[in-house]
């Protein structure tokens, strides 16, 4: 099995350790990982703001970089949101451009979110990881609704030794990041984070886990601003703990 | 006369430190006040939590619910594709039953039709059951102003709508119009009408309202309703109310006027069994609304009650503009309010922040579309695009995709603004070019130092100027890593 | 006045524009993974289910076997509510019931829904409304009320207490079954098959507009009784 790693731009620049954990976990499972160097971004910021032409241009670059059917079996990304952009929304933005649409539709099933890839492609549910603490899991909205990858990360976390995975109130609620929404509607965005944080406090968890670093960046920013020391980790980081 | 002219809503003072202004005016300004209003927050939370729990329980209990949603979507799709035919059929059916039909292009046409009718009938008291279509066109205010000489008394009879009317307020939710008011506020409003102090007690307030509105029901000259559904085949109007006001308004006054948006049609009578169930379960968490009332034309010969005269107004008011476009699915809406209840933005702001008759995700979609042009251009951005609305919608309207398409429409029509255009052109150029992308990352890391210096202690900037300030006003800025992933990869993992 | 032909032509023209691609909504919340308590679609005992649903809504239901029991129920209800005026539908079933005499004897005036000078005056004053129903729906505890000669809509609506008498064989299982009756009626008989008013009446009138607190008897009757006979 050979995969191309897609490290979204904010993971590349802000949370590169997430990418490192993904590589280590995959290699431990015998997967050959390559990192196409021409990669940049999926185009989602432009798309979400309505700049479809700009998103299409970036999408073309993404497809140029990642098509490589001969070279790798799958494209794996540690982000439910960026995976959704490629697998769900590329066919949407190229709807009226037959060439690109065909390319997008061919690429879509090969682009997989990290936990989806582990559980549904590799058939792995237990990584032999260890993490002490009580955790809640935040499912990013794209992962929940467009991808429908709900149970996979939870199953992986339930098999982490020492980890007490607990539920939290209204867990299906969006964290309030929403890409450019977080700066276009900052007051509401922060109020949404506060509702999540209130639920987090009530759950008694000391760790917040997600498959989306973007949600985590937003929630962590608010947690720190309000003086909370909650650990904030990407699923890959948890699965990578204690060397497996 | 009990009804007062609507007054401008008093804006609560914002006592918290000023944040940075959002690049999107309008919604954000109103929302900023709303998120600081503790009473409002509690009221909205109570309503939405209860509504979502009720809906989930009663929808999940119905084994065929997913199939019903599928059918609803397809019925609406078929209706819209042949809307002219179904409208014609509906009009024929109503006329065949002795009713009158009027085609109204605009709200103005509706106002004139009803005003002229009131004049002809010498009407004094008009009772109304809850109707979003008439809210949309501000029927009450316009009738009172344009037909001031008739001195009409227009009375809303849904408890919540009545209280809103008395308070000079507007509904903040499609289903729960005054969810933003607590019982103390409601007691204040009703005490003003009663001329005595009423306790903030649901029994006392409800009983007072029943007595007062009963007088109106019995003396009304004209009853006005909206339509939850209109059946093309039979000319039937379906209205659902729990209070019974919909059935009263259509049964007691001698004249019944229906104001129906043209998208409310369903082709066949049997389609009602799909929609009345979805509406009740999805909107209020009931298996069926208490009064699910089907009226077909005026009263039949031999009947003593029921309206003698029946008028159906088929209102366009911008709706047909959506037909055959990428926004057509917005017309499938059955106004159940489920998308408001699950919306994480609505939960924080309530309905008035949207500044329009329709709030929540469906409001953010249809308000700019119905109003057209640059109106309500803030609303498509009042969403984190989480898709909870899409998931909850009993007709399967892809509301968040429609919001995306609306944002794109703004870009195409030049509403989005030059600065944003330039920013995203820059984004495109950077992201198409790996070398440029790499340099930008480096530049970002370099910029951190002076920023940190300008910011605060511990090297962590607390607040920043410019667009980044919108982030740092409430959140810490993430640290850029000393080395991006691509460098770590090169060095070897 | 907007012209019908012009209006419909505008609509037709707009429906002809380019189509859009339909989207499929996710059904995460529609087909939940945990098996929730499901309603039993078979409904093996419709009368029992009807009574159960009606009680859950705060209505009162009772199964009776003969007209004597119905009379007794109505009489004792009238006494209990200290009723002065009862208004009832003018239908053969309620003539047969023979409750008018005993009610009058008990000091309750009975108004029958025929030839009324001012129906508002009568129905608005009445303490109790009494009617039959065309059908009842087990699934939801619903009465299907038709308008027509002798069958006043206001009777079921204006008095604070409302009683309906329904033979058990009139109980349908589901809402679609009831709606199908009228769809079929219309298909067979046109306008004659679909009365000017059909109301699916489900439990006491209520409002939740004040802080989501239940207020019963908002505009319609808050005190609803259904007697299933047979």
From TrEMBL, chain A:
Name of protein: Predicted L-lactate dehydrogenase, Fe-S oxidoreductase subunit YkgE
Signal peptide positions (record): none
InterPro entries: Cys_rich_dom
A Pfam family of this chain: CCG
Sequence ranges assigned to domain Cysteine-rich in this UniProt record: 3-86, 136-220
Native organism: uncultured Rubrobacteraceae bacterium
Superkingdom classification of source: Bacteria
Gene Ontology cellular component annotations, sorted alphabetically: cytosol
GO MF annotation list: oxidoreductase activity
